[in-house]
Design a protein that fits this description.
InterPro entries: G5_dom, Glycopeptide_resist_protein, Vancomycin_resist_VanW, YoaR-like_PG-bd. The protein is of the alpha+beta class. The protein contains eleven helices and 27 strands. About 25% of the residues are buried.
Length: about 450
């Protein structure tokens, strides 16, 4: 009985094999089975060596390939070698040839049948330098992206400034799209999608809140010839422009402006760190926070958090600056009124104007005064210098005085003082006077000693 059952099973297998082979496919073929492709190219009937040679030629062709990358209204020629792009053809060849050759009889027959009917696609595994590709993507982003601009009200003439849409490169799909185009022989170009970014505040939003009267404003000037610093000021000003602060809400400069990183569009410019001017990404942003601080003071809003710089600045008076460091020092103020407040930041010919607007004109007048100003004399630092002869001196840095100062805000109504508050007692460090002292022996002194 047992032998009879085994015979039946054996005959069934033979019958299935006959039917399978009738389709023109042999389980014992040394060729790639029908339906197997590599990146869309059929390898049917190829030997293992054929597959390896074909993919090797393909790889050499791709290594020489260039594509045109379109992003917005710009284009860029990119070659595979520029991002160290390569393909694992050995793994692809093995996968293509081995398909349908592992597992039991039924498993193999099923795979071969599925490949013939539905196809089996082998994808070339790419290897590339991610840092290099990311640098190109960052470059493309900087060329095409712009922040949306909120609707606002002009500090200069009170006209409503319409909103503008922003543009953003779809970074999440840019890398894969470039790699796919470079890995396809017949794809000469790729278009990176650019999406529009709507503004947070529109003209309709401003009108709906009834905002239109200027409360307080302040203007500072900057050097437009300093391109990077100017770019940082413009970017930070645009980020705070058009923000509406609801009653009771707190405005955080760091939260609104965000991290000062190159990937967010900020550039390297000189900034004050530990009392010294050094290059840093985002240099110049403190001029925006300081200008805003003065507009807030004149609008009689509540200061929540503010810090002065370590040394005096040139664009605002002593005691009227507000330094910011992302993640460490912030400038915050609260809307202590019963109505929404609109922030406007405008830039024109090297002038930064920031104003705060409400529904009705302020009934009070605000004055900012400074008292108790005391100078702190700079220390004199002497250092040896071998380039100067003994007895000679040279002033390397003249030094600058520091200051202590108290800043007050006085609020008046109908000409009468109704409130006086101490805003801050600030200390600005002096800059040391540095004198070089010569240590080099004069020629005659050396001659006399021989």
């Amino acid at each position: 009985m047992k032998n009879w059952r085994l015979t039946i099973v054996f005959l069934l297998i033979i019958c299935c094999g006959i039917v399978f082979f009738a389709g023109g496919t042999s389980l014992f073929s040394s060729r790639v089975y029908a339906g197997v492709t590599v990146d869309g190219v059929s390898l049917e009937g190829c030997s293992r060596e054929d597959v390896q040679q074909l993919l090797a030629v393909w790889r050499q062709e791709l290594l020489q390939k260039k594509i045109k990358v379109y992003y917005g209204e710009n284009s860029f020629d990119l070659a595979a070698r520029q991002i160290d792009l390569d393909w694992d053809i050995a793994a692809a060849a093995d996968e293509a040839w081995n398909y349908g050759r592992d597992g039991g009889l039924w498993t193999r027959m099923k795979k071969i049948y599925q490949a013939r009917e539905e196809g089996y696609h082998v994808t070339l595994r790419v290897q590339y330098n991610k840092d290099k590709l990311d640098r190109y993507i960052t470059k493309w982003r900087q060329a095409v992206e712009r922040e949306p601009r909120n609707a606002a009200i002009s500090v200069q003439n009170g006209t409503v400034l319409p909103q503008e849409q922003g543009m953003r490169l779809a970074v999440e799909t840019a890398g894969p799209a470039v790699l796919k185009a470079l890995s396809a022989v017949d794809v000469p170009a790729v278009i990176l999608p650019v999406v529009t970014v709507p503004p947070e505040v529109t003209v309709q939003d401003v009108a709906a809140r009834g905002i239109g009267d200027l409360w307080g404003s302040y203007i500072t000037e900057f050097n437009e010839d300093d391109a990077n610093r100017s770019a940082n000021i413009i970017l930070a000003a645009n980020k705070i422009n058009g923000k509406i602060l609801e009653p009771g809400a707190v405005f955080s400069f760091n939260e609104v402006v965000g991290p000062r990183e190159k990937e967010y569009g900020f550039k390297e410019a000189m900034e004050l760190v530990d009392g010294e001017l050094v290059p840093g990404v985002g240099g110049g942003i403190c001029q925006v926070s300081s200008t805003l601080y003065n507009a807030v003071l004149l609008s009689n809003l509540t200061i929540v958090e503010r810090y002065n710089h370590s040394k005096a600045l040139g664009y605002v008076p002593l005691g009227r600056d507000a330094t910011v460091v992302y993640g460490l020092l912030d400038f915050k103020f609260a809307n202590n009124t019963g109505e929404p407040v609109l922030i406007t930041a405008e830039i024109y010919r090297g002038r930064l104007s920031i104003g705060l607007f409400g529904r009705e004109k302020m009934k009070e007048a605000v004055k900012i005064i400074s008292t108790d100003k005391k100078a702190i004399l700079p220390a004199e630092v002497r250092k040896e210098d071998q380039t100067l002869y003994l007895g000679e001196t040279e002033v390397e840095k003249p030094g600058k005085p520091g200051y202590e100062i108290t800043t007050l805000r006085i609020v008046e109504s109908e000409g009468q003082e109704i409130k006086r508050e101490v805003l801050a007692k600030d200390r600005y460090l002096p800059e040391d006077k540095i004198i070089k002292m010569g240590t080099r022996m004069p020629p005659f002194a050396r001659a006399g000693g021989e």
